[in-house]
Amino acid sequence: MQLAVWTYEGPPHVGAMRVATAMEGVHYLLHAPQGDTYADLLFTMIERRNKRPPVTYTTFQARDLGKDTAQLFQDAARDALERFRPQAMLVGASCTAELIQDDPAGLAENMQLPCPVVPLELPSYQRKENWGAAETFYQMVRHLADTEVEPRRGDVALVNILGPTALGFRHRDDVREIRALLDTLGIEVNLVAPLGASPADIARIGAADFNIVLYPETGEEAARWLERTFGQPAIRTVPIGVGATRQFIHEVAELAGVDPQPALDDDTSRMPWWSRSVDSTYLTGKRVFIFGDATHAVAAARVASEELGFEVCGLGCYNREFAREVRAAAKVYGFEPLITDDHLAVEEAIAAAQPELVLGTQMERHIAKRLGLPCAVISSPVHVQDFPARHSPQMGFEGANVIFDTWVHPLVMGLEEHLLTMFREDFEFADEAGASHLHAHAPQHRAPVVSSEVETGEDAPGRGLSTTLETNGDAGLWTDEAERELKKIPFFVRGKARRNTELFAANEGRARIDLDTLYDAKAHYAR
Amino acid sequence: MTGALPLPEAGTDCAPVLRERGQREVFCGLTGIVWLHRKMQDAFFLVVGSRTCAHLLQSAAGVMIFAEPRFATAIIEERDLAGMADCHEELDRVVDRLLERRPEIATLFLVGSCPSEVIKLDLAKAAERLGAKHAGSTRILNYSGSGIETTFTEGEDACLASLVPAMPVEPADAAPSLLLVGSLPDIVEDQFLRLFAQLGIESVGCLPARAAADLPAVGPNTRVLLAQPFLGETLRALQDRGATHCCAPFPFGAEGTTAWLKAAADAFGVDEMHFNRTVAPGRERAKRALEHQRERLAGKRISFLPDSQLEVPLARFLAAECGMAPVEVGTPYLHRAILADELPQLPANTRLSEGQDVDRQLDRVRADRPDLTVCGLGLANPLEAEGLSTKWAIELVFSPIHGFDQAGDLAELFARPLRRRDVLEV
Fold this sequence. Notes:
By secondary structure, chain A is an alpha/beta fold. Helices cover about 45% and strands about 10% of the residues of chain A.
């Protein structure tokens, strides 16, 4: 048994729901107890869909157990078929139904339903949501693809876009970006799946010349089968960030045999100039901690280091299936990645790394809030505000624009950073005031000047970052004088200064940190 | 599977009840933890279940998850099922670790789920074993919040029923005491306690108490007044310990609250004049507050989809005090004895339904086209998209709605979606 408060991922049948809900003309019959319908509201509330997810739950209750749950399943199948008239049905069990062993696949097969039935085996006690989505999509493709169809190989290349689902982080807008990009290159889209595809569309999936795997978490399994079955190669570069987008364009253009230049010339790409403008100089070397699903985390690390000039100080993912990709990426930055689905472990790692910016999921947003750190969201799971009304892709050149704004916004602005350093004795710029444009820290009006003796009181409440990070250190290590000096350093770089100094002291074998150690360390790390 | 059966006790209320089964779009009893843990500040709720259970709790609890919540899930894994790990040993390990980290927990509820019920993990035995081990510091109880046995608010019923055996015995010669049952927001509970004090009812206990450690006593001199309609099991457990039920309508609106207080006052022989004087100010305030909303609500047709068992009392309130016309009132479970004072007050042509076949029920909603449909969040936006105004039901469980001083707020909850519909120009 595993003790859990937060889970980064739901059970695998929620992944199956993400595929069913993304598609048209599909109905999912889920053998599940009363109560499992809670998952509907992820789609109707978080993603604000205007239709119920196409899922019928058998909703068995205690009194049904042992006798007629199988009958219940078959009745529900008949009712759903009659009412929704789907082109194809998915049948499967949720975690509880898995235990009662009614065998939805066999039951559905015996009924000889007049539409294709795709049975799902989703081991709820081993696997999770992303795996469930990938497996469901793969099974859909495997059962419904017409293997007689052959790649078109016409003058104009034809591609499939694989991976976008319901409840996917910015999937809606990413697809729009990628479609526009392919348009520019004169490449035709055979289908986007699962998002918006019908079983009839899936039947023709073999007609494409190649596949684009936008989200490996949900699309890779199907892409591999398509590679084997139809000989369709797959593009696996995820076009998040300017560099990755350019690479993606080159790869796509090469496979399609077209000139990449029209897409590369896209002048809506403002991110490179924004990042080069002198206003962004202060972003150089800002320490950033990155956590999310593997795809978004790896892509974010590249953007952070190559396109914004940040220093990646932590990288990790919660989906073990893609741990290898994250390990490979982390090697570049020279540290071990964090592969865990335990949010407490993530919180510990963040506190230890003392970053200046956290990029993560909804959980990291809460962790960062608790630690008083700036944060931006880069990956699922996300709350309702990250299914925005406005166009906000992560992919392509517009995605890079969105990323620049989203990540820089929570940081203290450059000019403000200087003001904080120069006028730090003024009460408006005291630690407690925080950054003026961050509403998480409303300025508190306090008595203006505080003598450094009084300031050493560690128990002052509500000090956000400074309190949290400073209590991480070994209190006995620092002399009082050095500790006071440290407090003269602005709060948003103080964590880094403390960490560097302690590292320096450890390397030098110094048992105490006094003023000299502090300034020796400063000289050592001077850039 | 569908059929209209006549009510057994014709005469008290003679409406036929539509009983359906099929797909039920309802929460399971685990959801009760979300508000119960706020009420009982020294209790912790450990669900023994699957990732689905944990996912449900985090979806229902939203951002509350981060305020060091007093609930968690022990997620059953493959090795627990394959018999490679002894489930009881595993559970002991998880509980020990939890109590080590959170020594302030005075009561730990082991909460059963569908998976734990189906694999027949004996949580009662586990609670007994762990209770003996942690005796003196933590009381360990168990109940089931599984979907196969409980619907939404029934989780609170199961939880409170599990507390009843732990309640102290009231001395045989004790003066009559009042026991207020059902978790209410603190502010509402305080209002009621003030009113009981003014009425001269001196000994009043609450179940649940704010600290699960301070359970009120129970015995033959206890009069039970239910503040919520979904407490059938708890009532039976209290009656088994000799307590008597004061049957009353539920305290929604000016009239509902008056009648509810009157039932207690009568049980304690409170003088009629004194009663009227005491409740008059609150009752008048409630009526004044309702006047504002009545204008918007009167004549509007409303349907309830089953959710919390609050549907019947709320439909009665909206009909009697706001002039609304209930079309269909659906409830997950119709507890006749508890609703005995409510059912006869529903307008005669109200369609009562118990249980659910959600697609058929939605067909009826589409055919009826009520002005307002009370339903869960899985249905609300899809119905709005079809042009039907909705009021999402969960809010009625989370908001203070009982008593005189919340009557206006309660009506406002129903008036707001209608007002919003009228205000929006896009």
